[in-house]
Amino acid sequence: AVSPAGDAQRLREALQELGPTFVKFGQMLATRSDLFPEEFVRQLGELRSRVTPFPSHTAREIVERELGAPPSELFAAFDPEPIAAASIAQVHHARLADGQSVIVKIQRPDIDDTVASDLALLRYTARLVDRHVARLQQYSLPALVEEFAEMITHELDFAREAANAERFAEANAPEPSVWVPPVYWPLSSRRVLTMAHSTGREVGAQHPADPDARRRLAAELMRLFLTQVFEHGVFHAEPHAGNIFLLDDGRLCFHDFGALGQLDPRDRENLRGLFLAIIA
């Protein structure tokens, strides 16, 4: 029998089978609980932890090509096994000569060509579905695909992500509860990004375990997000659980700045007016 749960699982499995770009698209859809049923959001959210890593020798080759030397010469230690694998990159732990622990984010091989061909297929499919499946027209799939295409194209440039991280860190410098891992520019490029290693734990339903601590954390996250939007005009565009860690000292560590939201002063003023009108 057809069921929402079964449909959601089949969609997640199909996206996973189709490859990195489709996995990334599913991850974006998982953040749209305003559009999609809870079961679809839950299933698509699992895509964050279901990406197969590429071989360690390939990772070393990409680092050498991008940075001009093999990892063995650039780092005091480089773990060949990734600690995390995502749709467009994977992350390795390393250590600098001064003992600093860092993470090295390395793009998947040939990801540019893969994304370009996958986006063409996504656009075609979205137009086809929007034209022939009336019950899905409410989701404006072609518009969602274009939003995703812009986002993933930006995320393929790690130099842009590094600049975003520094801009976010500067905007949040007055916030004692926020920490952004520093970027190591000499060990970074368009396809390799080296940042300080965060030893925190992912924020989620089980962490922190204490209900009062979860409530305080939720309030602080909301305060930070509203401050970023209304005061700074610069905000983290993918603030899901996998991109926010809770450090042992209680600070919040933000990760993954491939997408950084921006609002000019006029947009912020209009948004403030909208909020005031709603709550008045």
Topology:
Blueprint lengths: L3 H15 L1 H11 L7 H8 L10 H12 L3 H4 L2 E2 L5 E2 L3 E7 L5 E7 L3 H22 L8 H15 L2 H14 L6 E2 L12 E5 L4 E2 L8 H22 L1 E3 L7 E3 L5 E3 L5 E3 L2 H15 L1
Parallel strand pairs: 5-10
Antiparallel strand pairs: 1-3, 2-3, 3-4, 4-6, 7-9, 8-11, 9-10
Tell me what you see in this structure:
The protein contains ten helices and eleven strands. With 280 residues, it is α+β, with helices and mostly antiparallel strands. The strands form three sheets. Strands 1, 2, 3, 4 and 6 form a five-stranded antiparallel β-sheet that branches. Strand 3 and strand 4 (101-107) form a beta hairpin. Helix 2 packs across helix 3 (38-45). It is globular. The termini are far apart. The mean pLDDT is 87.
* Helix and strand pattern: HHHHHEEEEHHHEEEHEEEEH
Mean pLDDT: 87
Largest sheet: 5 strands, antiparallel
Estimated helix fraction: 40-55%
Straight-line N-to-C gap? 48 Å
Question: Summarize this, please?
Answer:
With 280 residues, the protein is α+β, with helices and mostly antiparallel strands.
Considering the chains and any ligands shown, give keywords for the structure.
280 residues, 4-stranded mixed β-sheet, alpha+beta, 10 helices, 11 strands
